[in-house]
Amino acid sequence: MASDKVFHSRSQGIPSEGVKDQYADGRAARIWKKYIGDSNKRTQNYRTFLSGILRKHGCVKVLDVACGTGIDSMMLVDEGFEVVSVDASDKMLKHALKARWEKRRDRKYDEWIIEEASWESLPQDIESFLPGAKFDALICLGNSFAHLLDEYDDQRTQKMCLENFAKVLKPGGLLIIDHRNYDAMIDKGSTPGHSIYYNSSYPVDIKTSVLVVRGKPELVALDYCICPTEDGAIAEKSEFRLCYYPHKLDKFTEMLDDAFSNKAQHSIYADFKPLNQVPEPAYYIHVMQKE
């Protein structure tokens, strides 16, 4: 990966949702779990936004293509949706599989499907364990898609993966995908400290670095620092790094439209609110409805 010549893409042990693990010792993954907080809880605004859109469009069968440890998928299972969860990271999937096992007496969890799959071969991977399956909705949230960097300097892989997302949807199906506000991060060199997804109770500092190559922002490195707490829950400072492709809003909007052959209805939200209500959001959320 070109960026690794300058930056290490992530700290050792951090598995990345949706894409292959680069490191697997598990040490920093435990730090990441502290950052996201209680895995059984999601911010109410997020829960209401996501389940509301899915129900509004009559969605039943939902594919989570960056399930990671399974927290979004579990939220949807609890809300009554039929969920299929995939990830390319077996280090992440083991947490989802453990969560399903712990809730095995609950019938809706017993029917929760968890499999390994890659965005780059998503239709074929789905076909291998669910022949002929198409979905009412596909979610790729929590800034997961930005983990996929641009190895060829033309975004060909990112475009192909978005097209694969569109292929596994039923006619009228929804793609719900997000990314951080990289426009603001590039312009100001800083990242909003709050998260609209996680309920972490620990103090977190995020240092932002923007790598510019030949005048073009190539990636954003976020160095997370979780500081010691007075109650001793965290005894020493914990640090880890994650790197992302800096998707600008206009370009990402264009790529999404192209993935659906410019025939999908495209709505954009800012921190789960209408776009014009949030001057500088932390996240942009795109909702595509297939023709």
From TrEMBL:
Positions with a binding annotation for S-adenosyl-L-methionine: Y23, W32, R42, A66, D87, L141
InterPro entries cross-referenced by the UniProt entry: Gly/Sar_N_MeTrfase (IPR014369), Methyltranfer_dom (IPR025714), SAM-dependent_MTases_sf (IPR029063)
Domain Methyltransferase, residue spans: 60-186
Top-level taxon: Eukaryota
Subcellular location: Cytoplasm
Key words, A-Z: Cytoplasm, Folate-binding, Methyltransferase, Phosphoprotein, S-adenosyl-L-methionine, Transferase
Its EC number(s): 2.1.1.20
Gene Ontology MF terms: folic acid binding; glycine binding; glycine N-methyltransferase activity; identical protein binding; S-adenosyl-L-methionine binding
Catalytic function, reaction form: glycine + S-adenosyl-L-methionine = sarcosine + S-adenosyl-L-homocysteine + H(+)
Example of a GO cellular component annotation carried by this entry: cytosol
Disordered: annotated span: 1-20
The name this protein goes by in its record: Glycine N-methyltransferase
Organism the protein comes from: Pieris brassicae
Lineage of origin: Eukaryota, Metazoa, Ecdysozoa, Arthropoda, Hexapoda
